[in-house]
Amino acid sequence: MNITKRNRMWHSQLWMLLLAISASSSYLDATRGLEGESSSVKTSVFLSPAFELKPGSVVNNFYYDIPFPRGHIALKSFNGDVIDEQGNSIPLHETYLHHWAVYRYYGDKKAADEEDMSKFIFVRNSGPCINVGQYFGLGSEVRKTNTWVPDPYGIEVGNPTEVPEGYEERWLLNVHAIDTRGVEDRLGCTECKCSLYNVTVDGHGQPLANGYVGGLHCCYDRTQCRVKGGFGGGLRKLYVRYTVKWIEWNPSIIPVNIYIIDVTDTGDRPSPHSSALNTQFSCKIEYTVPPCGSVGEENGNCVDFRRAKAVLRRGGDIVYGVAHQHTGGTGAALYGEDGRHLCTSNPIYGEGEEAGNEAGYIVGMSTCYPKPGSVSLKDGELVTVVSNYSSVQIHTGVMGLFYIFVAEPQPKQNTLLPRGLAAPWFTELAESWWILVLAGGIIAVVAAAIFRRRNETEGYQMVRS
């Protein structure tokens, strides 16, 4: 047989072997999908109860026991969007989503009133702020902010061993939205300037504090921002459409703790005996950015710099980080006790009119996904959060929150298998046994053919002419 021809056959068979290996690998990669998702990720889409808004009006509603995936699961992401009755996304310059927040709690199964909070046991995040207890929460930036929890991590919920007897796990959604169609000052309305809302007391009927010019205490539920005379926009019905991605819990998933650090945190913890209305929380949630003035503009010093320190009780690896800021924000960062950089999150401003790209609004925040094990915290570490805003003009009711997901430290493994083989992708690979068997069969057949062909050719002698 011609040597060149035999080499071609050998190379062809070798190519078939590599193709079989590649095909099985490609199949497994395809099942993992986008964003690192595997085929085991489930997606649930829900609608909040309807809320109605007219030009200048405000809703700050709390929806109890909302539809949510049940059972012992690992949450992988949560996103929301404000839509109309036809399912169209509403641009921020029409309805400004000040914020939405999702809270986890245990509800009494026998309670007659599902909104009776005295029957609730709230399950807070792991952060230091008592009054910032949500699991998820963003605002105008929700459409372009990644909330994906990378593999092999997940937010563990629904563990039946943790639910008190007589209770069940439930979820609460808070939606704070402002209709800015036809208002006199769109930015002023979204920043809740008190003069535009014509209020002198807060949502609890208490007089506003001296010097308080804008913020949450002036744009509470059913308040009204000033609208231009003669504007005729009507009442419309809206919803929050929220999408939850999750997987069934299994021992290979590494649970994460959610920490929310607030740049307004003073570090003063309230007494456990304080009443809800009189409690002075250390985390103020919002603050005012004063204007820098003409001197500051001339010197180029129109940046408001705030920072705060907080102790994180449990250490581990940071696997995700993102900040929450309002219009005027220029970025936020988190630093460790020794000054090392942990994460920076910068705003993405829109440039158009369409939903998700509205000019002048923050439509997304950049996120951090450190390489596993590369950014770690020790137990009880004192971290510093920094929040920067432009101070060319006054900004009221702004926020500087920083979310991080921290993976719990894992015990030393006694197995000879590397950690990666305990990850969800390995479970998925095992579930795909049939494609592995098929690929293995093809590989075995081709390998045997190559081996046999080589043995045959070893007995040939070159014929000389």
Automatic annotation (TrEMBL):
TM stretches of this protein: 433-451
One Pfam family this sequence matches: SURNod19
PANTHER family: STRESS UP-REGULATED NOD 19 PROTEIN
Source taxonomy: Eukaryota, Viridiplantae, Streptophyta, Embryophyta, Tracheophyta
Keyword Transmembrane helix set for record: yes
Name of the molecule in the record: Stress up-regulated Nod 19
Transmembrane keyword on record: yes
Signal peptide span: 1-25
Key words of the record: Membrane, Signal, Transmembrane, Transmembrane helix
Coiled coil region boundaries: none
